[in-house]
Write a structure and sequence with these properties.
By secondary structure, the chain is of the alpha/beta class. It has one domain: P-loop containing nucleotide triphosphate hydrolases (Rossmann fold). The chain has helices spanning 26-36, 53-56, 87-100, 116-124, 144-148, 161-168, 208-219; strands at 15-19, 43-47, 62-63, 76-80, 104-108, 132-136, 152-155, 189-193, 198-202. A hairpin with a 4-residue loop joins β8 and β9.
Amino acid sequence: MENGQAPRLPGPKDRLAVIGTTGSGKTVAALWHLSRADLSARPWIVWDFKDDENIAKIENAQHVGLDFRPGPKSKGLYVVHPMRGDDEAVNSLMLAILKRGNVGVYLDEPDINKTEGFEDVLRKGRSHYVPVIALTQRPVDCNRYMLSEAGFYQLFDLADEKDWARVRNFVPLKKLGYENEPTLKKYHSLYFDRDRKKITPFMPVPEVDTILENIDEKLAPSRSHFFI
């Protein structure tokens, strides 16, 4: 909080870029943002490229193939597991998400970050109510649209000056009173609201087990089964 005011957090059509090196706390922070999303009201698709152990612990998530298409009544959390060489299927699903609209997208270190479908989601998704939570540990390598189209940035520690230089293209750290390469404690971050041009120091988010429990609680009602 700054001056007694909590920072504005991403809304139902905003893009958030979470940036930081391995072990900095970015993945847990991104999951915390996911836990705040409207999972019980619309579908969110998690692109799980790394078989993430925390994603695997979400009991009420549904694991689906790249041929999955969210229907008009779909809601909850759907996990897809793309592999190298799946670019065509990835593009097709990304375009289906954009066409349907009102679908959330969560990506951690996407191998697909330069596919045309992902670019279209980043460039056009806001007008289609497609919010994005995207993570990277190497901003110098990620799709430029992932950074240029973000409305919010959460910055954790980075190991390479080239990565900080890329970040400074989109977050005016020095102008806002921070060093070009700010020293951040483990699990602490800087949170930048682009529209308001406001940067806020961010304390560590809750423990990951608490976050995953909160996600499952949101998903549970949408997984009810009725037997006749």
